[in-house]
What does this fold into?
Amino acid sequence: MNDEKIFKLIENERQRQNEGLELIPSENYVSTEVLRAMGSVLTNKYCEGYPNFDGLDGDDDAVLASTDAGHRYYGGQENTNQVERLAIARARRLFGADHANVQPHSGAQANNAVYNAWLQPGDTVLGMNLAHGGHLTHGSPVTQSAKFYNFAAYGTKDGDIDYEDLEAKARELQPKIILVGYSAFMKVPDFERVAKIGAEIPGCLLMADMAHVAGLIAGGVHPNPLKFGFHVMTTTTHKTLRGPRGGLILSRGIVGNPLKKCEHTLENIPTLIDRSVFPGTQGGPLMHVIAAKAVAFYEALQPEFKEYAAQVVRNAKVLAEELQKRGFKLIGDGTENHLILANIKASFGYDGKILERALDRIGLNLNANAIPNDTLPPFRPSGVRLGTPAITTRGLGEAEMVQIADWMARVATLCVDEENHDEQFDKMREEVRALALRFPLPSEQ
Ligand SMILES: Cc1ncc(COP(=O)(O)O)c(C=O)c1O
It folds into this structure.
């Protein structure tokens, strides 16, 4: 029996990915090994609870030497316990954390689990203004967490965090969490400065949502908030970190027995988080995804990943400069990470959605995005957001960034009267396809 319809769609998607270039900064292309782990029999297994947390400090062999049954609610865990132990140990090694919870199903789940671990209903969280680059899970009124907690926002100024605003609001509101994290922000945050502000507020948890830049941190080209006094770092595993879709929570503190209640202190945050993930906010972990996370962490621990992360940033800088030369006005005047935010309205007089759609036609995929203080609505925002994690995985370098900037500039000029330029669009579609096929997806190599 074969579900032809679904497998045809998967095949079409494989082809679309192979023949186009992914510029959406939150996407990446995983390795064959990550795909293999995800498509494995581990999906058949229930593993509510946690493995044993002893002996996670050594190398992989040392981790595998411990075969204790752990804290699970089901039998048959001899393999799954070891899969999760390896994932935890590698994540801790990668980020220099005391504790890792690899079970969150997504970045949003990871953030909610931290809120649930530390906050009481009505407590205040101070995070980056969503309209300035923060994420939905940092207090958008449409989220579940916004019903429970009181979210306040600091802004950005000239593309950077407005640290004075952050400090003034922190003093005034005495938040229980200060959150540094974003989906559209191109600077490297001053974690030390924020940690100093947080340290003056009793019971304030310093949380960094590094969903976008975790791979850059792992690759050593971006500072690690845990080294600057932050208590918790959440991330997705599928963006720059180049693993399966999923979430991850890292923290500093004492790792205790997750089945036992513990005191509500900053030191106990690892255990509070474990209890908040399961049974607090999730049921059974996705063991096939946890195995794929472990594979991705293994890959990120290799020296080649450092080179990858450095190239992501180099490519982003070149792409930003080349776009600026061609009339694109960039928020923050460029980038310090993998991400670029261009003000299309100010550059060309129309909204970001128009450019997004026109670029889709030639196989360059990016997303329309709000810019700080956008006067246009979210579905037709002023900007576009793009980045280099995925194309760098395929091996594109600086020369190809110049080529991409060229295509983008041509499309930006032609898309005002697109219907009169079908031939040029078709020609560019062929050029993009030809370049893309020279750099196959990792799983096709
Ligand atoms: C900063 C940030 N946090 C959290 C998330 C949520 O991740 P997920 O889509 O896996 O729930 C994202 C995703 O875009 C993000 O950019």
Observations:
- The pocket of pyridoxal-5'-phosphate is lined by residues 26, 106-108, 111, 135, 137, 181-183, 209, 211-212, 236, 247 (CB under 6 Å).
- The two ends are 29 Å apart (CA to CA).
- The chain has a mean pLDDT of 96.
